[in-house]
């Protein structure tokens, strides 16, 4: 019989639980977002997110088990996100998982949230190892050579803001609703990407490192210049800024993807993470992969953003590979490639990425 694992995810502002089988069947995937709770603050408030997780996670687990028509006694293990993420949310999930494991005697597996994203193409498309992955989300952006359930070699990534973070900040600068990714993308569809010349950071440097902080600052200055000259922004100004910003992000990601494929040729190039839901980014990356002779894989949109199915699957990967469970410690920082030099610095809590 295939393994059946309950997954629990609470690293940011989505409370999620899922039941997944080892034959790649997602029996249930429940995600409760918190957008309404944070809307008035222009971004995710960690304390509010943690409290919401504590209130909702057990209901998510109940709903997932009911949808899957599965009881706790039918499970082979419980997998939970143990980091990286907002520590209050991570703790909420870890404590719930510990309680369930103690009550049932089930094995408990701590999963790196980034590994969940990185292994998603194996859940959705059965992609064999090795493959090249671009993990691009609200808090992370890095190229990974995925060589096994615990084999991740980082080729490069952002040295400051992640693209999703830049989308959110640009949306806030322009008075658009959060989360910024979907709203900026929608505005960009009405805009002219050629009207404003925005920078393409680090394209003149070799390698796969990226930077998006300067692009965000350029948008801020452009907005201020327009407001100063005209007394405000017209709807077309806003749409054109969004189109120019998105075009810059797309060009950077596409160019760096081409370099990553040249540095580490792979039969498959996959993309995952919340920003992978952006249609323009997907289309550009698919063209780059095809030009390099690689198969392009992008998970369904509901499995690009944070979810617990990817956590359950990562647990199944570890169990199937015979990897011994490690002590579960809730971690705000947890690099996938521990051998790579930190891209964003390090501190008492460890490397950021």
UniProtKB/TrEMBL annotation:
All residue ranges annotated as the Gcp-like domain in the record: 25-313
InterPro entries named in the record: ATPase_NBD (IPR043129), Gcp-like_dom (IPR000905), KAE1/TsaD (IPR017861), TsaD (IPR022450)
EC number(s) given by UniProt: 2.3.1.234
Cofactor(s) in the UniProt record: Fe(2+)
Protein name per its UniProtKB record: tRNA N6-adenosine threonylcarbamoyltransferase
Record-linked PANTHER family: TRNA N6-ADENOSINE THREONYLCARBAMOYLTRANSFERASE (PTHR11735), TRNA N6-ADENOSINE THREONYLCARBAMOYLTRANSFERASE, MITOCHONDRIAL (PTHR11735:SF6)
Reactions catalysed: L-threonylcarbamoyladenylate + adenosine(37) in tRNA = N(6)-L-threonylcarbamoyladenosine(37) in tRNA + AMP + H(+)
One of the record's GO molecular function terms: iron ion binding
Lineage: Bacteria, Pseudomonadati, Pseudomonadota, Alphaproteobacteria, Rhodobacterales
Keyword Metal-binding belongs to the record: yes
One annotated GO biological process: tRNA threonylcarbamoyladenosine modification
Cofactor comment text: Binds 1 Fe(2+) ion per subunit.
Residues where Fe cation binds: 113, 117, 306
